[in-house]
Specification:
By secondary structure, the protein is α/β, with parallel strands linked by helices. Helices cover about 50% and strands about 10% of the residues. Strand 2 and strand 3 form a beta hairpin. The longest helix is centred in the last third of the chain and has 39 residues.
């Protein structure tokens, strides 16, 4: 009897506990959100392999004038690419140099500042060291490792390669290496030397690229506009809104970039500076305008807080400013920058319209260096997913 009473008591106690403490449902499984994938910009790596012997003076001058237009033409792609440029200048054995290599960089100011120093000299004896120039372009340049990058060489010259140098790596071997790295090789012949034509055509065929011929001067479009000077002035003012911060190494790199900018503002033509202003306002050109560790951009985008930057890492212009006033100074520069960008965009559109009309008046420019480079880029970059809707290059 006692056992039965105890069992009944335990049953009642258990039932009361169940009523007092209902069964808890397990919490739902939390499914983590998908990771945020950073959309990487497509990459264009372009290296010009340029004959700098005495007969190439006209083309070298054209290159100095047109590098910004070529960059702007490439920047017209969708999606907007990261553009890096490099240069291999070549002459021949016995000249001041055989090759000079300027590695790929998104700082076109630095590449341009180096290009400005090149002069046409030497040569005069027929074939040049084209083989070594191509070998250096393939093996001494820091090409992108991205298999989807559009990597391209433009070989520009008027004389055939020396095929009699026994210690040379001949161009078929270098072009085979280029193909293995996914690099397209295009050839631009200046003038009409028959011996050059055959070799340049073969190189383009081996390099899965295009061959085209231009006049000895380069046949580039050169149209001055009434907006060029003001664009150049606004571009200089835009440069002046930049502030660089960071370590001593960061600041040294920025100083090199700013020195290149000062050099081109002092020596480049007004027209070239106007073309640079237009390129710098493209999505691709922002990397050239700003470089790395630029404070106004990084504060505006929320990347850094100026109040948290250590005194030695601040730009020199801000180190004497009281801490509480630094953010206001940066914001002031940001407003100035926005207004300058607006003015540049307005004038750049007017300039583009003016130049286009002048080109049309002259009968078009389908045989120009500009059009031929743009045509090759448009076709080849399309295979890498870059779309160019513009019918003509930027001038």
């Amino acid at each position: 009897m006692k056992t039965k009473l105890l069992a009944t008591f335990l049953f009642v106690l258990t039932a009361a506990a169940v009523l007092a403490f209902p069964r808890q449902e397990p919490p739902p499984m939390l499914i983590p959100p998908p990771p945020i994938v950073q959309q990487q910009k497509p990459v264009i790596d372009v290296v010009f392999v340029l004959d700098t012997t005495g007969s190439m003076g006209g083309l070298i001058q054209a290159a100095k004038e047109k590098i910004w237009s070529i960059a702007s033409s490439m920047a017209q792609a969708q999606p907007a690419p990261q553009i890096r440029m490099g240069l291999v200048a070549y002459r021949d054995r016995g000249d001041d140099y055989v090759t000079r290599v300027i590695d790929l960089s998104s700082s076109l100011d630095t590449v341009y500042a180096t290009l400005m120093d090149f002069r046409a000299d030497g040569g005069g004896d027929g074939p040049e060291s084209v083989n070594q120039a191509l070998a250096d372009a393939v093996h001494k340049i820091s090409w992108s490792q991205d298999p989807n990058a559009y990597k391209v060489i433009f070989l520009v010259g008027d004389a055939p390669p020396h095929m009699d140098y026994q210690d040379d790596v001949k161009y078929p071997a270098s072009i085979a290496d280029a193909k293995a790295k996914g690099i397209v090789v295009n050839t631009i012949q200046c003038g009409n030397l028959t011996e050059t034509t055959a070799e340049w055509q073969r190189m383009a065929q081996l390099g899965q690229g295009s061959y085209f011929a231009v006049a000895q001067s380069g046949s580039a479009v050169a149209v001055a506009s009434p907006y060029d000077r003001e664009l150049a002035e606004l571009s200089a003012k835009l440069d002046a809104t930049r502030l660089y911060y960071g370590s001593a190494a960061d600041k040294a790199k920025a100083e090199e970039k700013e020195a290149a900018g000062s050099k081109l503002r002092a020596s480049a033509s007004v027209e070239s500076q106007a073309r640079r202003a237009t390129f710098n306002r493209s999505k691709s050109g922002a990397a050239n305008l700003l470089g790395e560790k630029e404070l106004v951009e990084d504060v505006s985008s929320g990347k850094v807080d100026v109040g948290r930057i250590a005194q030695p890492e601040l730009p020199a212009a801000l180190q004497a400013v009281p801490p509480g006033e630094r953010k206001a100074e940066v914001e002031k520069l940001a407003k100035q920058r926005d207004e300058l960008k607006r003015q540049i965009d307005d004038l750049a559109a007017k300039r583009a319209d003016y130049v286009r009309k002048e080109v049309d008046k002259a009968g078009g420019a389908k045989d120009s260096l500009d059009a031929k480079i743009y045509g090759a880029v448009r076709e080849q970059a399309g295979k890498k997913g870059l779309s160019y809707e513009a019918a003509a290059p930027a001038y």
